[in-house]
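Thread: "does anyone have the structure for this chain?"

Original post by V.I.:
We have the sequence but no experimental structure in hand. Need at least a predicted one for the grant figures.
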Amino acid sequence: MRSLSRLLLAVCLLVSCFVSRAPAALLIREFDFNRHERFANHPDFVGDGFDWSGLGRTSTAHWGTLISPSFMVTATHYKPDDGTAVRFYHSNDPNGSFEERNVVTSTALRMTGATWISDLSIVQLDAPVTNATFYPILDAPPAVGTELFVVGRSTGQDPILTGVRFGRNHIDDVLPGFTHPNLGAREGDVFIYGFDDMGGAGDDEARVQGGDSGAPSFAIVNGAPVVMGIHWFRFDPGDFPGLGYGSGDTLVSSFAAELDTVMANAGSSERVTLLAAVPEPNSLVLCGA
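Reply from O.Q.:
Generated one for you, tokens below.
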């Protein structure tokens, strides 16, 4: 892990709640509608063969990722309001079946010893989502080089509930206890991933844009998706040595105990599912509205 003292962050490191930018589609090096749009419902979809039913959206363009039947995670700086309906499609068919649940409450998490809250919030729903999957998390930080599925919004789709785009990237570094004045009073473990113009994930190389805050990055572990991070910020060349443009996610695995505590305090018996398996590095994933 790179020491924070070595990070030369420029003032252009921004999150959308402090800088107003129009929402844009997840940037993919060589975008192909059939390959990168989840609801194109095409066999060439980059995420075909995996279960994405636990990925929720709202009509207000917010994101949520199930970590148990009744709880999901999202970004603190861009979380849905209480009472908002979250829709979970059972398949990649935009005309297919779905379930909706309403947000009861959201809780911003704080790491032990941290001065400020993190940009990771847990959201309680009014009832369990019964026919959608929920995603485990790792019990330890991921390896540098871990391949990611990066999720973000698309443009030109109606309704916004099906505006979901998938790309790929890989983890360049894991940063403990990250904070920066331009991101407000936020603190937490993160991982970062740059946008490689030449190599990386090839034509699937992805970079998050405005409107992607709260969406997840996944890794494939033991043949199934595991939620790795929730998009927090994006960065420009010079912010991190050796990287150009890129993105930073709050590292969900660092908050397992805090997630369980919120569930218990809510009177729920649900808890996060921890996986000991660590995805192998692969040589071959933001932010706000």
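V.I.: this helps a lot. The chain has two helices and 17 strands.
O.Q.: and The longest helix spans residues 256-265.
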